[in-house]
Amino acid sequence: MDALVWVVVAATVVLLVIGFALAARRLLGLRFGVVRTLLGGGLAVLLAGPVGRILAGSVSSDEPGIAPLWFLILAVACALLASMVFLVIAEALVPTGSVPGPVELVRAARRALLRSRRYLRITRILVRHGLGPYLRGRDPDLDAPSSRARLARSLRRALDEGGVTFVKLGQVLSTRGDLLPPEFVDELRLLQDRVEPAPWEEIERVLADELGGPVDETFAFFEREPLAAASIAQVHLARLPSGEEVVVKVQRPGIAPVVERDLDIVARLARTAERRTRWARGVGLGDLARGFAQALREELDFRVEATNMAAVAATSARPDVRTPTPYPQLSGRRLLVMERLDGTPLGAAQDGLGDRERREAATTLLHTLLEQILLHGVFHADPHPGNIMLLADGRLALLDFGSVGRLDASVRASLQRLLAALDRADPMGVGDALLELVPRPDEIDERELERAIGRFMARHLVPGVTPDVQMFGDLFRIVFAHGLSVPPEVAAVFRALGTVEGTLARLAPGFDIVEEARRFAGRHLPVPGDRDQVRTLVTQEVVRLLPLLRRLPRSVDRIVGAAENGRFSVNVRLLADARDRRHLTGLLHQVLLTVLAATAGIMAVLLLGAGGGPRVTDAVGLYQLIGYNLLVVSGILALRVLVVVFRERRED
């Protein structure tokens, strides 16, 4: 019997806790975490008894039944008010969502332990290579070329020792001549992504997982020795049962968790550097780290690469350039099967080419990239020699589509205008095209921007000076100096151009990339002011305006008729956007609740201080009882306003 009583009591207490918790959350009008809501309900249950006993002490046994009922209601209201106060204070001190739940805490602790080990190792690497002071907030000495070269060398060695993620980061940074001094770019280009191949047993498990069965069931032949091995994947030769020769790209086992952990460390280091150093804030290191993390995560998913390969092949149909055909039905997140092309990597094949063949290959490669960027909007963003193959029939082939850029029509048009204005040495045209390419800030000195562009052109685009790709780096330094931020897709364009410039310099020394780009523009891009272009544009605009022109006479007739009859009016619809209406309604609700809370509080104080009036008990008058209830109502309304303020402040 005693056990049954305890069960009933426990169940009653639990129900009371849940009831108080739900009532407090409902009155505040917001959702809170389960733990803090139940704690608030438990606090209300703990206080309800003492408050009820205190209030019951003022009621004598001969009082009418209505008086104890009122005091019971008041005790419950006070306990509920205490629960609401707890939730509001908790929201102010520890906002909802700022502290993870128990399960997430355990997972976070495990991740933190693993991250700490890796973080300590990375820190030791940085300190060993002399980069420790920069972690503590010291700005690097970038004034003297010798200091820049020494720091760049230390950074390259540290990134090389850090592993796959940091090697990839260094390779990306080596293409950002618009952000880093030339010494850093030249040093980081030395980073190589070559490692020992993974054992066949581990690769075989990955293949079986992705294929859903043994390797022999899918391939008639599979070469166990890899053709090439990198830090993320390695490549094997294979043959399908149909006899087709294929190349199989397999992700190294266990690489994804390592990369994720390293990306977290890269993000933390970038945030720390931005918070402590001026140079990191100047180059936007946090945004750079986020863009790098997104690109590397896509590179880990070979399904994205297969989609990129198909997109480039579909939009670029040059007969002298090939892209391998993927086999989507055999590919997966960690496996990519593609057509095998018979050829030699460009870096190894260029020595056997004559000057004429080198120049033809360089022209083909540059025109292919410019077509992809300016005409089609889908381009290979990493055209270094290792990703280009010279086929046996003399054609070029593009490989490794893990990094592909995409541009919409408006960005392509702005790029065309930018290049055309550079060719005409038109500072105003360059400035206008730049402001179309980048997000325009609220405040910008356009005259100073035009003067800076004019100085840039006087340095790079005057007779007797041969323009080179380095001018793009100087141009985008002007962009950053004026507070403009380059979108990732535009940065990818200039990264690709910088990479292909290095490839062309190795393939055909002395190749004039700017002059060849001018020839390409003359053949493929519309000439500003050209008669046929103007005629086409006018025709397109007239066709778009025809429906409006047909309706215009009727509209004018209706307006004139309404004006003649005195019925002409103009309707202006304020707050047409639903979001604006919701925002204004929320503000009005908050103001109304504040006024009601203040009014109830003032009335409660006045009633509590008033003497006389009917007596509810010997110690409490009717005015005081009403005052206590109004005080509770005032507290509830005020707490509802405060909790919304705290929640909105955190969300902002």
Automatic annotation (TrEMBL):
Which residue ranges traverse the bilayer? 6-25, 37-56, 68-90, 591-613, 625-646
Q: Which stretches make up the ABC1 atypical kinase-like domain?
A: 191-426
Q: Cross-referenced InterPro entries, in alphabetical order? A: ABC1_dom, Kinase-like_dom_sf, UbiB_kinase
The answer to whether keyword Transmembrane applies is yes
- Keywords (A to Z) from UniProt: Membrane, Transmembrane, Transmembrane helix, Ubiquinone
Q: Name one Pfam family in it.
A: ABC1
Question: According to its UniProt record, which protein family does this protein belong to?
Answer: Belongs to the protein kinase superfamily. ADCK protein kinase family.
This chain's protein is named: Ubiquinone biosynthesis protein UbiB
* Organism, as annotated: Microbispora corallina
Q: Which gene encodes it?
A: ubiB
